[in-house]
Amino acid sequence: MAKKTNTNIFSWVISSMESRLVEGSLTDVVINVNWRRTAQTNDSDPENPTPVYYADVYGQLALNNPDPATFVPYADLTQSYVETTWLDKMTDPSPVEMDANLTETLNLLANPVDATLPLPWSE
Predict the structure, then answer these.
(1) DSSP H helical segments within 55-120, as ranges?
(2) Given the DSSP bridges, would you call strands 54-62 and 5-23 parallel, antiparallel or unpaired?
(3) Which of 2, 30, 92, 103 has the fewest CB atoms below 10 angstroms from its CB?
(4) Residue 38 and residue 72 in contact, taking contact as beta carbons nearer than 8 Å
């Protein structure tokens, strides 16, 4: 018998980055990162497949003035760098808090507690 696994998959989607064209001696300085945190269920049971549920939250991260000594030019930024250096270190809300809220949303999608039922006289 295949073992059922229940895991959620979380990921970042970077929608855009707003930049200041010139700041002191630096150019193309990122000042805001527009992001989305996504979550989807990944339930696998070959004998009893379940639907996949999806939830997301979005926001904007405002960045402080960069340190010229550690500044990474815009053209050299990678998605991995933006995620690990900026997004994973957010504090309000933190990625851990976002993931907990997204997990709760996925659980409610899979096991709803409220519904809009059809009117009993319209059937």
Answers:
(1) 79-81, 95-110
(2) unpaired
(3) 92
(4) no
Residue-wise pLDDT tens digits, 65-105: 899 999 999 999 999 999 999 999 999 899 999 999 999 99
Q: Which of 67, 107, 52, 61 is nearest to 87 (CA)?
A: 61
pLDDT digits (tens, 9 = 90+) for 33-59: 999 999 998 876 667 667 789 999 999
Neighbours of 98 (CB within 10 A): 18
Which tokens go with 48?
């009893």
pTM, 2 dp: 0.82
Q: Is the dihedral of CA 50, 57, 29, 85 positive or negative?
A: negative
CA distance 104 to 113: 12
